[in-house]
Amino acid sequence: MKRIQYTGNNYQEIKDFCGDKILAPYFCMGFSMLSLMTDDGFVSVQEGDTIVQAPDGTFSVEH
Fold first, then answer.
1. pTM greater than the 0.90 cutoff
2. Neighbours of 13 (CB within 10 A)
3. Angle, CA of 48, 52 and 58, to the nearest 5°
């Protein structure tokens, strides 16, 4: 499995990792968040969360 943590300042790195499965960051109450397309639909990725890519290429988020 591959993993990357969202720090709030590494959007380009996240984009390179997830490709078109990630949407641009948006800001809510002083924090940045992303939306990641998973097999279960869109999942919010908050600062400090880890995006995991399974060997089959699917993505999930560890909060």
1. yes
2. 13
3. 140
Amino acid type, 48:
G
Q: Whole-angstrom Cα distance, residue 42 to residue 18? A: 13
Could you tell me which residues are beta bridge partners of residue 32?
27
Quote the CA–CA distance of 25 and 49 in Å, as a whole number: 14
Q: What is the Cα gyration radius of the chain?
A: 11
Residue with tokens 């998973």: 38
Q: Read off the tokens for 58.
A: 């699917």
Q: What is the pLDDT of residues 4-60, one digit of tens each?
A: 999 999 999 999 999 999 998 999 888 899 999 999 999 999 999 999 999 999 999
Angle at 3 between CA 42 and CA 51, to 5 degrees: 20
Which amino acid does the sequence have at 40? Answer: D
